[in-house]
């Protein structure tokens, strides 16, 4: 095979792989629910890790900004995790999410803003802001959970 043909074959293979990688997937509602649950579980995991750091239970302050940024990015657009048609199955999401969507979106926005403010404080290392901003974030999450998540 000539060098020119080899380049063409490689380029064609690369385009084929990239085409597969960017092909849109039509997610089923069940897959959407599983994705949503995984994202929210990761937020809970990062929140638990932050609580351990903020309370001085572990000495991993260098990880605080990472956890804070992860939460902030995960909460960037919570409403998209709850599209119409994903209000069934084994989930703790209450029907009120879809019934009171404007209020839900506002509470999600409040949590997003609180997460961004906490991430900024954690990134700056400003010790006097970290605790209060984390409390604000936790309170914002609780406010949404109170109205829109079924208790365990």
Could you provide a short overview of the structure?
With 152 residues, the chain is mainly α. The protein has helices at residues 3-21, 29-54, 64-74, 96-99, 101-124, 127-148. It is built from six helices and no strands.
What are the key terms here?
single chain, 152 residues, mainly alpha, Four Helix Bundle (Hemerythrin (Met), subunit A), 6 helices, elongated
How would you characterize this protein structure?
The protein is 70% helix and 0% strand. It has 152 residues and is mostly helical. The chain has a single domain, classed as Four Helix Bundle (Hemerythrin (Met), subunit A) (Up-down Bundle). It is elongated. The N and C termini lie far apart (64 Å). The relative contact order is 0.12. The model has no long low-confidence stretch (mean pLDDT 89).
Distance between the termini: 64 Å
Shape: elongated
Whole-number radius of gyration? 21 Å
Q: What string gives the helices and strands in order?
A: HHHHHH
Tell me, rounded to a whole number, the average pLDDT.
89
Q: State the major sheet.
A: none
SS content category: mainly alpha
Strand content: under 5%
When the domains are counted, the total is 1
Regions with little confidence, pLDDT below 50 for 5+ residues: none
User: In CATH's first tier, which class applies?
Assistant: Mainly Alpha
Strand elements, count: 0
Number of discrete helical segments: 6
Determine the fraction of residues in helical runs and give it as a percent range. 55-70%
Topology:
Blueprint: H1 3-21, H2 29-54, H3 64-74, H4 96-99, H5 101-124, H6 127-148
Helix pairs in contact: 2-3, 2-6, 3-5, 5-6
């Amino acid at each position: 095979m000539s060098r020119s043909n080899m380049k063409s074959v490689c380029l064609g293979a690369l385009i084929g792989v990239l085409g597969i990688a960017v092909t849109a997937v039509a997610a089923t509602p069940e897959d959407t629910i599983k994705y949503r649950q995984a994202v929210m579980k990761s937020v809970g995991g990062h929140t638990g890790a932050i609580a351990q750091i903020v309370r001085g239970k572990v000495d991993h302050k260098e990880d605080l900004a990472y956890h804070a940024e992860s939460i902030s990015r995960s909460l960037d657009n919570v409403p998209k995790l709850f599209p119409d048609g994903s209000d069934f199955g084994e989930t703790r999401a209450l029907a009120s999410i879809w019934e009171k969507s404007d209020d839900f979106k506002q509470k999600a926005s409040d949590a997003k803003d609180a997460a961004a403010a906490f991430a900024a404080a954690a990134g700056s290392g400003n010790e006097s802001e970290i605790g209060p901003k984390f409390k604000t974030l936790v309170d914002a999450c609780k406010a949404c959970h109170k109205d829109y998540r079924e208790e365990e």
